[in-house]
Design brief:
heterotrimer; A alpha+beta (329); B mainly alpha (266); C mainly alpha (278); A: 329 residues; alpha+beta; Rossmann fold; OB fold (Dihydrolipoamide Acetyltransferase, E2P); six-stranded mixed sheet; 9 helices; B: 266 residues; mainly alpha; MetI-like fold; 12 helices; globular; cell membrane (chain B)
Chain lengths: 329, 266, 278
Amino acid sequence: MSFVSVEHLQKSYSGTPIFSDINCSIAKGEFVTLLGPSGCGKSTLLRCIAGLTPVDGGKILLDGQDIVPLSPQKRGIGMVFQSYALFPNMTVEQNVAFGLRMQKVSSDDSNKRVAEVLQLVELNDFAKRYPHQLSGGQCQRVALARSLVTRPRLLLLDEPLSALDARIRKHLREQIRTIQRELGLTTIFVTHDQEEALVMSDRIFLMNKGHIVQSGNAQTLYAAPVDAFAAGFIGNYNLLDPDTASRLLQRPISSRIAIRPETVGLSLQGELDGVILNHSLLGNVIRYRVEVRGVQLIVDVLNRAPGDLYADGQRVALTIDSSTLCEVA
Amino acid sequence: MSRAESGSPGIYHRSVVWLLFLILLLPLLGTLVYSIASSWSATILPSGFTLKWYSQLWSDPRFLAAFGQSLLVCVAALVLSVILILPLLFVVHYHFPRLDALMNILILLPFAVPPVVSSVGLLQLYGSGPLQMVGTPWILIGCYFTVALPFMYRAITNNLQAINLRDLMDAAQLLGASTWQAAFLVVLPNLRKGLMVALLLSFSFLFGEFVFANILVGTRYETLQVFLNNMRNSSGHFTSALVISYFLFVLVLTWVATFLNKDKSQ
Amino acid sequence: MSRGKWLALLCLVPFAVFFIVFQIAPLVWVLIHSVQSEESGWGMANFIKIFNSKFYLQAIQHSLEISFWSSLFGIVIAILGSYSLRKVDSRLRNFVNAFANMTSNFSGVPLAFAFIILLGFNGSITIMLKQAGIIEDFNLYSKTGLIILYTYFQIPLGVLLLYPAFDAVREDWRESASLLGASSWQFWRHIGLPVLTPALLGTFVILLANALGAYATVYALTTGNFNVLPIRIAAMVSGDISLDPNMASALAVILVGLMTLVTLVHQWLLKRSYHVAR
């Protein structure tokens, strides 16, 4: 039994369709990610669920109830924006208490709940500060606290980490996931960052041009992309058209093939001869560009010891495990 | 904005905007109708229409002289402003960025000290003595420079910030240009459009300046606004034609300025 | 300091000279002469005379009343107008915005003449309203008339200043508030208005200063016969009656003082409100 289910949802802006038939369902307590390039409709879908953008047709069921006719005020949905959207005239405490104030929660109860949720995001020392006195990461934690305090049925996160720098981003995504698990909160997270999606989600909906291209857990999406777009968006797949693939593997192949760079083995001897064109150091991984039978492949090798490095121009042998090859549409 | 698109709120906002437009339009419309009415007194609508007031106006030598003198004074004041303000802006933003704070206080003075107040001092200081200027266009040119200053300074500052003066100068100098070459060949061309807009808008409000012109110079070098005021006892139709001609002129200027402005943002 | 910097400073000299001659020097002259009088030399004689004269006090009172009411009406209309401007389609918005821009130059003498045509004793609106029985009589050359006239030239300025201010109220705040359960009205009460307050106060102060210093409109309308501060000041330096530049200076100092006071109150109010970074 799904907790959230989106059925035949349609939306267009002044004649241009954003999406025409979106269907998906989410279980209670699940953390799902809408992943896709900018303009794929993921943020619009999120805003439709929140009620900030009216839909043209279809249903959105939340706990069995169609929420499309409800105003955002009545949906019981919490949302965190990329731009934080903190009210600048209120302190951290007042910002967090705002939703409770709108629900006319008594001030004793409200104070207690605000303190609890600030504890949860580790910001109790900042209760009296104004938003402009906080860093970006702190602002986003306040925004998170503000949307948690009203105990929403569903939490929406619209690229909440995109405006932050890398280190804070990593820390905050762990914090978000921990809190979400602790509260058992059904959450939809929107991002264009594949790494974020893979690390955080129970399930990922990969979107492109207004369609859900593929859905599944991180492992499925990474190991078995359904089409060229999925393969191109996740990981650094080598994408070969049928002709090139046939030439490389020396057998007739009728579909496009995706080869993950870390599944190709490099050694000094073997039947598949190639030449190292160049390499770049990505930290724990060395990425080689190798030419083999007139095809250029990217090959990732774990960076174990400096002595293992192959020089540019060196002849090498490749091993391609046919079980890791992936046919894509 | 998406939720406001539909239904009754749309109608409310549209009617407010139209009402605002009508309120702003009404005095102009009244003047326009009056200027083409053959006669109009003690009735709601005029009795007939004619263009004779315009032909009378545009063949009046005193009007043409006032128009020319206004043009001359405004153009001269703006040339002076550019000569004085451009180097100032460049020096402030390139060499002494801290002076910008001081300048922002100084340019408040023309706002905080109304022309009537300045006139009191100007009349006494330059009415006689070594700097005798009262009654000549020279004093107007100087005063109009102070009137245009705050606006020009702000407008060009915004422009300078938008083009990132320091990086442009550094890049030009690394490519071998001297400070002068960099300023003239790189910075100035990039400011041209912003400068044009600032000049056109300044011109349109200087052209309507009355206080300095009336108190300091009066009929000794009659500008358009002073002429208009002095014509108060002649036919109202004649002055209306004058008002409309003046407004059309300013309208064209502001229109060109908006057009340039829009072009720049695209 | 390097030679380049000295040269750069040299570029500032012409500007400084002109600014001093046409802006600073007249102001200093006024300040000095406000505390001098023909009869009693240095001292506060001018100010004492002003504050004991019903005539001068009336001028100050008229100036304040007209400025206050016209700024209030002007800002209310500008708030309603610029808020609605943001809500209509862009073609209408751009058109009315550009028109407001142009009419901001329509003030002073031409505006006074236009109002005489519409609202003078024989103005077409006056006659229309009289015939409709809404008013008995209307005197444009009175305080009420001047308040209407001033309000008119405050509106475009108000719209010009306030329209961008509404940018400060971001759409995602409204969305956030609505998800947290706030109605549109609650949003404006708790977030929108508090955020806009500094801009509203600032605009009100600018309108007030604009009206306090206005001379051309009232001069053209009443040929200098209505008793407000700028008219009094000008009359004593360029009028046909008794000239008294020292007295004019004292009145001018009061006018500038009023404007400074308004600005200081504004600054104080701003400091009491919170600060928006950005």
